Amino acid sequence: MSQVKAYGAEANDADLKQLDIKRREILPNDIHIEIDYCGVCHSDIHQVRNDWKNSKYPVIPGHEIIGHVVAVGKEVTKFKEGQKVGVGCMVDSCQNCEACDEGLEQYCENGMTATYNSPDKHLGGHTFGGYSEEVVVDEKFVLNVSEKLDIKAVAPLLCAGITTWSPLKQWNVQKGDKVGVVGLGGLGHMGIKFAHALGAHVVMITTSPNKSEDAERLGADEVLVSKNDEDMKKHANSFDFILNTVPVGHDVNPYLNLLKRDKTMCLVGAIEPLKGVNGGALIVKRKRLAGSLIGGIQETQDMLDFCGEHNIVSDVEMIDMQNINTAFERIVSSDVKYRFVIDMQSLKN
Questions:
Q1: Domain boundaries, given as residue ranges, for the chain
Q2: Full-prediction pTM beyond 0.85?
Q3: Closest Cα to residue 187, out of 127, 268, 254, 303?
């Protein structure tokens, strides 16, 4: 084992601070990665503050990891020292269930191993994430990253990117489809970029008219203000797909009314109870309300390859590790466009 510097919280009401953690020695199929950048996800805040009532302390967050390979196990074939790589929201799964066999490790029937706050089958205790100097990961869960892209801005693709890419592909969004993206934040801004790159007619659906200029800059063809009842009526029954990125419980019924017959709205943000859903909105035109987690490893690699081909990255604001507590507060206040990324060199200094 090796000891490395990290940033984490020792209780749900504690600030993040520097801690020392242990990383395992590399096994035959492992990749040892020195972390260069790590994105900051709202999930990091939920876990640190135990909002989902499943946190294990100390929590070392971070599942949007970009780094370079410093060593490989003797049986590794896909990676070499010096290579730029990524690690996303999971670092293991059973590899034997139906979901894993289908490349859907995120839905592993025996439970995926999350990059942090999951049982650590190697060291015991629980896993520690990317707010740290280094990480050791099985090569099956390490991703190739195109060096044609702005590497620091690739980091949020490992969560915000794949979270929005996966449902767009699952529901087969194609050129010419009318696609709505509800909410313009870390997830929503990636949803707009991807839907635009796939050739869809993209409508940003927001409660805030002042987001129109930014939405159009990101690739939206038009903006629909959901508080405007007349405009909502004009768009009724016209959408082929709606990606709903709102991160809290809310009334989904007005958005369901926008869908065509047999079309789907997918939730990717609200991991909590919703307000009452009107069954009539679903039944009358056989509409669907669905949900989606991240994506499997191959799908995540496909997304990264697509980004390399189309020059797609997240809009990021860089911070030093020592400013993470302020960044958390700014995320809660929606004061970031659109993802923070930590320069991990600041931890090593």
A1: 2-159+315-348, 161-291
A2: yes
A3: 268
Cβ-contact 179, 241 below 8 angstroms: yes
| Residue 53 CB neighbour total at 10 angstroms | 6
Question: How far apart are the C-alpha atoms of 310 and 305, rounded to whole Å?
Answer: 9
Question: Looking at 99-108, 270-279, 289-298, 307-316, which range is the least confident one?
Answer: 270-279
- The pair of structure tokens assigned to 62 is 């971070």
Cβ atoms 76, 31 nearer than 8 A: yes
Each residue's pLDDT tens digit, 42-52: 999 999 999 99
DSSP annotation of 119 reads B
Between CA 127 and CA 56 the distance in angstroms is: 9
pLDDT band for 150, please (50, 70, 90 cuts): very high
Token pair 């659906």 is at which residue? 205
Of 130, 155, 137, the closest CA to residue 70 belongs to: 137
> Residues of 202-224 as b/e, b for ≥16 C-beta within 10 angstroms?
bbbbbeeeebbebbeebbbbebb
- Bridge partners for 164 per DSSP: none
Rounded Cα distance, 131 and 61, in Å: 6
pLDDT tens sequence across 260-301: 999 999 999 988 888 889 999 999 999 999 999 999 999 999
Cis upstream peptide for 57 (omega within 30°): no
Q: Which fold has domain 2-159+315-348?
A: Quinone Oxidoreductase; Chain A, domain 1 (3.90.180)
Ramachandran angles phi, psi of 113, nearest 5°: -95, 110
Cα 267 from Cα 291, distance rounded (Å) = 5
SS (H, E, C) 165-211: HHHHHHCCCCCCCEEEEECCCHHHHHHHHHHHHCCCEEEEEECCHHH
At the topology level of CATH, where does 161-291 sit? Rossmann fold (3.40.50)
Contacts of 277 by beta carbon, 8 Å cutoff, 6+ apart: 252, 253, 256, 289
> Before 58, cis peptide (omega within 30)?
yes
